[in-house]
Structures are given as structure tokens and as C-alpha cells.
Amino acid sequence: MHVRHLTLADFRSYPRADLPLEPGITTLVGLNGQGKTNLVEAIGYVATLSSHRVATDAPLVRFGAGQSIVRAAVVRDGRESVVELELNPGRANRARLNKSPLTRPRDVLGTLRTVLFAPEDLALVKGDPGERRRFLDDLLVARQPRWAGVRADHDKLLKQRGALLKSAQPVLRKGRSRRRVPDGLDEVSERESALHTLEVWNAQLAQVAAPLIYARLRLVRDLGPHLASTYDEVSAGQSDARITYRASLRDEFAARLAAGEVPEIEEIHAELLASYDAMRAQEIERGQNLVGPHRDDLLLTLGELPAKGYASHGESWSFALGLKLAAYHLLRTDLRDDPVLILDDVFAELDSGRRERLAALVADCEQVLITAAVPEDVPESLRGRSVRIRLGEIEEVGSDE
Amino acid sequence: MYEGAVQDLIDELGRLPGVGPKGAQRIAFHLLQADPQDVERLSDVLLAVKEKVRYCERCFNVAESQLCRVCADQRRDQSAICVVEEPKDVVAIERTREFRGTYHVLGGAISPIDGIGPGDLRFTELMTRLASGEVTEVIIATDPNLEGEATAAYLSRFLKGMDLKVTRLASGLPVGGDLEYADEVTLGRAFEGRTLVHV
């Protein structure tokens, strides 16, 4: 698939912008702070409904404006769909697909699929586990949009259970006091009632957490071989890049998962419930959810060593890039269609060998969008069509062909 | 900002659910221009609703006397109780004319974020009603969202040991809808709860 046209109104630095795009390679060139990344950020937003740079929508709306509009015409197999998003910070965003309004903006997911690689992605290797979980979950949604719903439910349930652990803490810790509680005509201690409620939320949470872990395990299994080859290609065979799922479940079970086993959902479900029981005292003590997908991590290893802490800056870059390219290849095989590949400010960080190898790797993609401050950073073979961005003005420089 | 009473009215209206600042302003000016009798009628019912309306002693639905209209009706089947979250759910189910039993209004759903635990809902009162032995079926009709499901799960745990038929409202496809427009969760639920046509 490819994006044929992008229109923005009051998005980031742009009061208005019109950017016609073509299949193949397009390079957006401009000095720092001119608005190159804002354009690719908008395209990424259409695909994921979130920005790769900020966690909330407020900074995306141009300063002083009430809302911003992003419209993208996406072509897949010769058919064009138009996605229009209205970002209203503080209120619900709205989405339209081919001019008809959607009840939930989430339903546009899947119309456009992108893989975006940006300097921020270095955090995949060097950052907190949260970055790697987000990478996995975003990829799950890109593969099958229905995971967006599971993820949203999981977040809500975690909040409810967290609030319960916190509020019931004093009761659960000692639990001597007696109070009228619902159990027929008998009196039960307040503690028992609180435990009862906790078990209810345990069951609810496990019901969405188990499929989420299962889906991530399968994703890690499918992604592994792609990563091995993309990392190898980017770094010219220096060492093996591997990913392992590190679960917050009980040790024995976590070890099985780390070894690459993907148990049935029912088994993960039972293990989650057992883990909640095992961790109960600690969870109550700290008033936090301590077990489940939100505490898991993806372990990245180069050869025998963990990438975090051991890999050099260049190796970390290559690993992050390898992960994103692996995601690209996975989606491409899954969907039998090329996602749009976006490389934001990437070439400046790579040595010339890696630049050339990356260029060779992406040359056959249906659409690649590249941003660069210095055109010379982009290998000759990838220059393609060039668009110059200057203070929010878009100006065609022409193609090299 | 308007002067005195007008602004007070706009502020009060703006605190109502579903009314924003613009809407509050519109309603305020509508009232300002309306006939005095109309406004009087409105102010009367506003006061009356606080004075007269109370909760049914048995099911906690809104009522104008000790019992609500459903509980006071002798023809209703006393052996079935439909458990709902809010009085407005009673009205919704009544509109179907499908159910001939009685209700029990919990007064909300379990939601730790909002500080609502089982102790804040009318579970005890429900258990007291069940203890009489007259009831044989409990229909759990809490909302099909995360909090409603948790409340249903909590309730069903309590009812487990009792000699009762416990059912939960089915969730599935809307009547008159298209399969293709159903979201995956709804469609998945509809599949789970599919009914037998013949073997």
C-alpha cells in the first residue's frame, strides 16, 4: 500500500499543508526545525492513532488552534480509501473513512499500516521495558486491529484492580474489623469481602491478560527469524540478534516461555490466576499490580550478551533498526502487502557501510518516506524524489531520475 | 459573564450531566423568555421530585410510596428477580414487556476507581430477599461492560451455593443490524452464545 496524498490543518507547525506522494522513495529534506518529522508523524498517526514522539494529542494541535485535521488518501491494490481524523484535545477524537463517520476512531486501524523508524526508537534497546512492550503491542494491533480492543480493556482492568489493591490495603493487611457485608444473613469479616472482590477482578483481568500474553508469545516467535536476518543484513553479520520473552509469571513457567514455548491460552490463564495468588501478599503490601503482561519485558541479546548495557551505540542503533525492519517484513508476509516504511532522520546516525546496506534492504519496498537534514546523508541509490521543507512550506525539488 | 441570577442559572444548569456551557446558556435564555406558568411548572416538578420520590423498600427502584409500581403489583411473578444497576435499567426492561418478575436495583456497579465496592451496593438487601425462599430464579442484567461484568461475577459467586437458577442476559447482535458492521467482541460473544435451531 502507499499514501497518495496527505492533507493537514493545524497539525503541529502547519496551519495547512498539502503533500502529494507517490509510490517508491520520497526524501523530505530540510534544516532542523522546519517540519519534516511533523509530516511523517501525521502519517504514522493515521496508521496507529498515536504519535511516536508524544503520549498525548495536545502537542499535535497547532499552538492556539482548537483542533487539527489529518487526511490521508491510502491506495491498496489499486483501491483508494480516504481516512480523515479530527484531533480534539480534551474531547473525543473523531474519524471518518471514505467520508462516513465511524462510531469508534479505533475502526480506522488497519486501513493504513506503517513501520516507522525514528531516533526515539533507540529507547527500544536502551530504554525501559515499557518501550519494548509498546513495540510488541503496536505490532500486534498492526497485524490484527482487534488487539486494540483487548489492550484497551486490559489497561482499564489494571486501573480498576490497582485502585482496589490500594483502597483495600488497610483492610486486607489486618482485617479484624467487622461490618455488615453481603453474605446472606451472616456476618463476614471485611477482609473476606475484600478478598472476594479481589478474586472477581483477578478473574476478569486474567481473561484478557492471558490472550494478550499468548499473542505476544506468538509474535515473538514469528518475529525472531526476521530479526536474525535483518540485523545480520544491517550489521553485516557481526553477531546474532535474538529476542526472548521475559514474563512476570512464576519462575518455572516463565522459563518455559523464555525457551520459546507457546502454551495454550487456557494454560496461561491458569498460571496467571496461580501467580496472582502467589503474589497476593506482595501486591497488597505495595498496592500495585505486580504480575501480568504489563510487567513483562522483551530481552534483546547480541550473541551471548544482553544488548542493554553491553551493546555499543552503533550496535544499539542497528538492533533497534533491525527490530523495526523485522516488523516490516513480518507485516509484509502476513498481509501480502507492503506497509509504508518511514525512516525519520536515521541515516545521520549510521556509518557509510550500514547506510548502503540499509539502502539495499529497503529498495524494493512499495513506498519509503525518508527525512534528512542533509541530503548527502542519504545514499545516492535512495534519493528518489526529493521534497524540500522550509519553515512549513513544501516545495518539490524534483526527482533525480 | 452575565449578571446575577442569569449567571447563577447558567452555572447550575451547567453542572447537570450532559449539559455543557453553551447548552446551559441556551436553556437559561429559553427559560428567561418562556411563559411564567411554564417555568413555574418546571420548578414545581423539580421540588416535587426531591420531596415525593423515594426508593422502593424492597427493590430500590424509584417509587412514590413504600413500594414501587412493580413490587406493588400482585400479578407480578415473585419467584424471579432481575438484578440491574440503575432504576433506568428497570424502565428499559419494562419497555420490552418480556419480563413478568420483579427487580432488584443495586445502585451501580463495582468500580474501585470510583471508590465503589460491594459494600456500597445493595447486595445485602438482595440476600435478605433471597433468604425468604420464595425466589427460584435470579437474572443478572448488569451492563455488559468491564464493571458490569465484574459485578455479575461477584454476584454469581455468592449465588453459587444457593438452590437457584442463575442466568445472565445474553449479549450479541443488534436486531435489524448487519453482521459486517458488528465489532469483533460482539460478534465473538454472539458466536459463544449461539442458540440451537435443531440438531
Automatic annotation (TrEMBL), chain A:
Keywords: ATP-binding, Cytoplasm, DNA damage, DNA repair, DNA replication, DNA-binding, Nucleotide-binding, SOS response. The keyword DNA repair applies. GO terms for molecular function: ATP binding; single-stranded DNA binding. Pfam families: SMC_N (PF02463). It comes from the Bacteria. Residues 3-373 form the RecF/RecN/SMC N-terminal domain. The RecF protein is involved in DNA metabolism; it is required for DNA replication and normal SOS inducibility. RecF binds preferentially to single-stranded, linear DNA. It also seems to bind ATP. This is DNA replication and repair protein RecF. It comes from Phycicoccus elongatus Lp2. The lineage of its organism: Bacteria, Bacillati, Actinomycetota, Actinomycetes, Micrococcales. The gene is recF.
From TrEMBL, chain B:
Belongs to the RecR family. May play a role in DNA repair. It seems to be involved in an RecBC-independent recombinational process of DNA repair. It may act with RecF and RecO. The keyword Glycoprotein does not apply. Gene3D superfamilies: 3.30.60.80, 3.40.1360.10, 6.10.250.240, RecR Domain 1 (1.10.8.420). Keywords: DNA damage, DNA recombination, DNA repair, Metal-binding, Zinc, Zinc-finger. This is Recombination protein RecR. Residues 79-174 form the Toprim domain. PROSITE patterns: RECR, TOPRIM. The keyword Zinc applies. GO terms for molecular function: DNA binding; zinc ion binding. It holds the Pfam family Toprim_4. The lineage of its organism: Bacteria, Bacillati, Actinomycetota, Actinomycetes, Micrococcales. InterPro entries: DNA_Rcmb_RecR, Rcmb_RecR, Rcmb_RecR_Znf, TOPRIM_dom, TOPRIM_RecR. A zinc finger (C4-type) spans 56-71. One of its GO terms (biological process) is DNA recombination.
